[in-house]
Amino acid sequence: MGIVLALYHLSIFLLSISLNHVGHQNLVFADETLIQLQCRNAEVPSTCIQCVKSDPRSQSADKVGIAAIVISCLSNSAKALSGNMTALASVVHDTKVKQIIQGCEIGFSEAETDLTKATTLLENKDYDGTNSLINVALQQEVDCHNDVLDYKVSVPSIMIYDMRVYEELSDAAMRIIDRF
């Protein structure tokens, strides 16, 4: 009798574990599908997907939540680029180059502020206003990138890469929001 009871409890336990595992697997699959769906129209979907998956909120995010995560990645990128420009400006001695780099730093700092406002507008369902502010923040990067190229400013390749990722995330956020 004791063995039968122990086997019964073991079977119930194993069944409950397998049901929980199956349910969890479907939930993750649904989240993965939504992430893929929202990011697929981005110019570089892999950048969007990597950003979204890096945030724990993605496990329970709806499409607006995914857009908010991409804006958060974008804001973090603006903050990092601003800090990197500050560090770069501190070691540059040429006055014109220093001014260009400091202009980039200011632009990325302003972009970070714009992206914070964009998140608020997104939460308030002002999608046109959200995209407008993302576009303003993107223009800061475009202006910086053009100045760096026009004046042949020597910028570490990792910063150029980070600027490209910033552009890709901007594109992804605006394309996701366009479909709301």
Shape: elongated
What number of structural domains do the residues give?
Answer: 1
Please give the largest β-sheet.
Answer: none
Poorly predicted ranges (pLDDT <50, ≥5 residues)? 1-30
CATH class: Mainly Alpha
Please give the share of residues in helix.
over 70%
**What is the helix tally?**
6
CATH superfamily: Invertase/pectin methylesterase inhibitor family protein
Which structural class do the helices and strands define? mainly alpha
Order of helices and strands: HHHHHH
Chain-averaged pLDDT: 87
Q: Supply Rg.
A: 23 Å
CATH architecture: Up-down Bundle
Task: Please sum up the structure shown.
With 180 residues, the protein is mainly α.
Could you explain how this protein is built, in words?
By secondary structure, the protein is mainly α. The model is unreliable at 1-30 (pLDDT under 50). The chain starts with a helix and ends with a helix. Helices cover 84% and strands 0% of the residues. α2 (45-53) crosses α6 (157-178). The protein has helices spanning 2-39, 45-53, 63-91, 95-123, 127-150, 157-178. The longest helix has 38 residues, at 2-39. Keywords: Disulfide bond, Signal.
